[in-house]
Amino acid sequence: MDTATAAFASDLYGRSGTAQNGNNGSTMIENITFDEIRIGQQASLSRRLTMSDIELFATVSGDLNPSHLDENYAADHLVVGHSMWSASLVSAVLGTLLPGPGTVYAGQDLRFHHRVLLGDVVTVTVTAASKDEARKTVLFDCVVTNQDARTIISGTAEVVAPTEKVVLAAAELPQVQVIRHDGHELMLKKCEALPPVPTAVVHPCDESSLRGAVEAAEANLIDPVLVGPESKIRSLAETYGLNIARFRIVDAAHSHASAETGVRLARTGEVEAVMKGSLHTDELMGEVVRKETGLRTGRRLSHVFVMNVPTYPRPLLITDAAINIYPTLEDKVHIVQNAIDLAKVLGVDVPRVAILSAVETVNPKIASTLEAAALCKMADRGQITGGILDGPLAFDNAISREAAITKGITSDVSGKADILLVPDLEAGNMLAKQLSFLAHADAAGIVLGARVPIILTSRADNVRTRLASCAVAVLSAAARRRGAAPAAE
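The structure assignment produced for this chain is given below.
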């Protein structure tokens, strides 16, 4: 049961005087029949209005009035609750407390006097005013007040009261989680004051990749240079109604030539980023890593997923899940340094790095635990800079402070990790996709360690993911431009 529901249930059963614990520990609720109800009898409950309440009520009711959801639109920038949210609490009292289970609504007449603001505590009180013996109905006076004793709602409710005694276990309500996708929105907002980044979009020869480039341009994130067969690109744009009239197109006969040309544009400084189109990742990266004509630097290339997980309080960087299959210890030095530098670009002053393994102790039989210990010592010696490293850590210890305490682990990273360094590509790829598909996380992906950021997108990516990947590249390019990010030459 979530916190809001638990508070509601505690108040509900605590005030009723009709709840009792069964042999199995479950809460029992008991109604008050028509014959038992006395004129003047009262029941009440209190509830604090939270943003989760507002969002859940909007989701269930379909009422998306921005007065409830957008503080910039709301009068005086004060978010107000739905009036019917307060009214629904009247139903909660009648249906669970007085008369309780078996109650059927016959009518309701309410007047709304004042708005309920986010954070207000409202108290609903119903008082039995009259009874109709023939119809077995009871008329209740209903009053809703706030924490300042101001009347928010007043009126009456008529119900058909139960005639038979009912004692039963209260239904256990499902856990409800509000899944927000504002992490990527915050990242996009940081790009609003930045100019679009000239970006070579390599071989955008299917709808997904060409549309992604157009959408990123419309969001003022990139200034695309479309590299590929010009006739095919124009034909695609016409087929799918995409306006590419203002974009420069560099003709390239096929995907290999597109990769070569896109990398050359970045190498000569004509563009500040490269974005993968419909060609295979290996084909593009093969040109990127060419010794004489590619975009290599003193760093090893690595991929970082920037994940915004609804159940985690900060962005989570996962590396490497796309480039280095079985990285060596030396490779991991570069991989973790790339991630630390990116985290700083994204606004983390001192990134915390959890080096993952299956266990949290050094075990000579598990190579990743030995490498974790070595990486931590290298950070102590200044061979890795800018972050706080700890490992080996199992995933639960990295993410949950409570899990670490339970296992007796003292760590400055546990429960506060900004970066998860995975043992190999398989582990990283599975972890990132599990978070996306099971935890509803938003992901953005970028390749670091080259002369320019490289945006890797997938045909399965939604618009939000594509734009967020471009946003990461925009922030990285801007940091390089002002000298706030290492050149890694």
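Interim note for the steering committee: Confidence is low (pLDDT under 50) at residues 1-25. DSSP finds 15 helices and 19 strands in the chain.
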